[in-house]
Amino acid sequence: MRILLSNDDGVLARGLRALRAAFVQAGHEVFVVAPDREQSASSHSITLDRPLRLREVEPGVHAVDGTPTDCVLVGMHGLMEQRPDLVVSGINHGPNMGEDVTYSGTVAAAFEGFILGVPSLAASMRDREHGDYEAAAGVVVQLAERAREWAGGRPVILNVNFPAGPSAEWGPVCVTRLGTRRYSDELIEKVDPRGRKYYWIGGSEPTWDEADGTDFATVHEGGISVTPLHLDLTDERSLESLAAVDLSEVRA
To answer: Is 154:147 a contact under the CB 8 Å cutoff?
Structure first.
């Protein structure tokens, strides 16, 4: 397979290196286009107000001074002579579960692959510092090699999250739905040496509703969570009730 590999932690990140090594060892063609620095929580943003610059770090590995979405666009439209069979993003240093997928640059790279008509997979590790990235990369390769099965001939996004602890203690791969995060974000106000206010968006580590069948519950219990995603944000349950509302008097 021909793999376009990206991430949001930067071109030198451990998770990206582990993925590249695993795909190459498995005999796949790998083309890396990743940010030249960390782009965490960049979501699905595109750089439109300046040109993008890139450099070849080593053969087949390019660094872009932009977002993960920029990287996938540059890779598919500017650098790769042939379309990839699969876009893979990660392995992110930290989990991407529940509502946090909307903030994630890692997941956004997979979203962009999906938009461009390519099956895509995003992978994240719960343990940022000590996660077994090499073992996780091996699992991602196995999932990628079954892409024709899970994609079913159409673009699909898989969001994969790995638990903490050594891989020997990991549970099975489970198909899950997105969980719900309990928010504890804070806005921290400070004053700089010139007397001007500035702010940090912070807070403690997120907690989650532990509903069965969710990505969080699976990862919390030591399993590997695989969640299929899509980009249709239509609230189907509200369509009928909204259609029943008389909007005939609403005018510009």
So the answer is: no
Contact 160, 224 (CB under 8 A): yes
Counting Cβ atoms within 10 Å, is residue 57 exposed (0-12), middle (13-18) or buried (19+)?
Answer: middle
What domains can be seen in the chain, in order of their start residue?
A: 2-180+209-243 (3.40.1210.10)
- pTM as predicted: 0.90
| The predicted structure's pLDDT at residue 109 | 97
User: Side chain identity at 173, as an amino acid letter?
Assistant: V
What average pLDDT score do residues 110-131 get?
A: 94
Inter-residue contact 121 to 160 (CB < 8 Å): yes
pLDDT surpassing 80 at residue 184:
no
Peptide bond into 188 cis (omega under 30): no
Q: Residues, the chain, total?
A: 252
Percent share of the chain, pLDDT over 70 = 97
